[in-house]
Amino acid sequence: MDRILQVGMAYQGSRTLLSAVELDVFTALSDGPLPLDALRDWVGLHPRGARDFLDSLVALGMLHRNGGIYSNTTETGRYLNRKSEDYIGGYLEMTATRSYGHWGHLTEALRTGRPQNEIRTGGDFFETLYRDSRALRGFLQAMTGLSRPSATALAAGFPWEERDTVADIGTAQGEFLRIVLNEHPRLRGIGFDLPIVEPIFAEHLARLAERTAFVAGDFLGDPLPAADVLVFGHILHGWDLDTKRMLLRKAYEALPEGGSVIVYGSLVDDGRRTNTHALLSSLTMLIETPAGGEHTPSECRNWMAEAGFGAVYTQRLTGTESMVCGTKLTRARAAHDAGRAAFTDPGRPGADRG
């Protein structure tokens, strides 16, 4: 029974954390611990609920309390303090203002298969977003927070020393490029996104202006930029199967021989039972998009192979995110691998079944 109630009432803890981000509780504690009254005044809380609210954050593991003095945990001080370079609160702010309400219509989405965001009332999220410069900046900042952990893992775990250029497809503010280029000074980066994003990209990467370029375009209709590595971070999940395959084919066409494509995000585990975050993210795509959804590493590897990529592999990046990488092999290597696969194919008459 306890597990049932814990899951069924989980929205209470979620809403408490989201409100703490909106109220800047963790930023208030960035310069050091504060007693209840001082923290309450800084944040602007009514006395009636302040103590219960802050102590709920303690119980949720989001704050420490020593006597009557509150302080950030190591994680909240790093990731939810607006002054920190690792701040991911923008993504949670977007969750609070958008996704939290839309998730209230999950039952209808499951019954109808239709999105429950602005589309539900005849609107379009992105058309509305692009008309509001403040909302657009907030959305791009949210994407920065979402991509930062995996970008950090990729900066350390991919053989960038063998590459000269990388293009980030759907780059938003360009946070992926900022992290990777800071770790690899000889690398140059290209941000590919819609024209309206360019000023925000240029501002975010001003210190790397000599090593970065912005290419304006729509990845659905325009060719992808040429680079040694093309990166799709949290992109494929927004589209149907045909579009996913089309984007990987376009990546193959844009890459030189020896070039690689990286797809990263919340990939559903192949057994579809352990990566809860990815499975719930796929339900978010049900709510937010006409045909999107998360995929498994095996599915992505198959799509890459269909597009022509070889040497395809999967690698864990964070607790909930992974990447799939494929390489456009040289013609000689591709022919060799194809011949070897044909020789060992157990379905081929006369093949070596070993």
UniProtKB/TrEMBL annotation:
Pfam families: Dimerisation, Methyltransf_2. InterPro entries: COMT-like, COMT_C, COMT_dimerisation, SAM-dependent_MTases_sf, WH-like_DNA-bd_sf, WH_DNA-bd_sf. Keywords: Methyltransferase, S-adenosyl-L-methionine, Transferase. GO terms for molecular function: O-methyltransferase activity; protein dimerization activity. Its EC number is 2.1.1.335. It is an enzyme of class 2 (transferase). GO terms for biological process: methylation. The active site is at 237 (proton acceptor). Residues 13-76 form the O-methyltransferase dimerisation domain. SUPFAM superfamilies: S-adenosyl-L-methionine-dependent methyltransferases, Winged helix' DNA-binding domain. Residues 103-309 form the O-methyltransferase C-terminal domain. It comes from the Bacteria. PANTHER family: O-METHYLTRANSFERASE CICE, PUTATIVE (AFU_ORTHOLOGUE AFUA_4G14580)-RELATED. This is N,N-dimethyltransferase OxyT. The lineage of its organism: Bacteria, Bacillati, Actinomycetota, Actinomycetes, Mycobacteriales. The gene is oxyT_2.
